[in-house]
Write a structure and sequence with these properties.
Layout: H1 9-19, H2 24-31, H3 35-49, H4 54-63, H5 72-75, H6 90-100, H7 105-112, H8 116-129, H9 135-151
Amino acid sequence: MENRVVLTTREIEVLKFIAQGKSAKEIGNFMNLSERTVKAHKQAVMDTLNIHTFHGLINFVHQNPSAVSLTQEDIGKREPFPETGGELESQDLLILDMTLRGEGNEEISSQLNINISSVKNKLRIICNRYGCTTRFELMARIAPKKKEAVSA
C-alpha cells in the first residue's frame, strides 16, 4: 500500500509559489495573506513531509512534483537567471555552496573563519548578482539549475 501525503489546498498553493522561487512576502501579497500566515503554511508542509530545512523542501518539490500536484509548468515558471556580471570569487562560491546545502550564517562564519556580517554581506552580493532578494529565493532558483548541470 502506498503512503500518500495529504496537504491542504492552501498548502499546495503555497508550495507552488515556493517552487517558483517566490518569497513569503510575495506569496502573501498575491494570495492576500500575511507573511506570517504564509510561513505557517510552509512550516505545516515541512512538518507533514518530515522535512527540516528549506533546502530540503526545495529538493523535495523538484524531485516529487506529482506528490504535491505540481506540473513541470508550475516549476518552470521561475524567472531566468540574469547575467551575473562576472565570476564569483572563490569565497563567494564557497558561501553559495554552503547556503545551498542549508547551512546558516553562523555555520558558514565558523567554517570559513569570517565574521557573520561578512557572510551576510557576501550573501547580499551573491543574491544581487542572481536577481534575488533573499537566500531562500536564491536556493529555490539555483538548486534546480545546479542539479541540471550535474546530471548533464
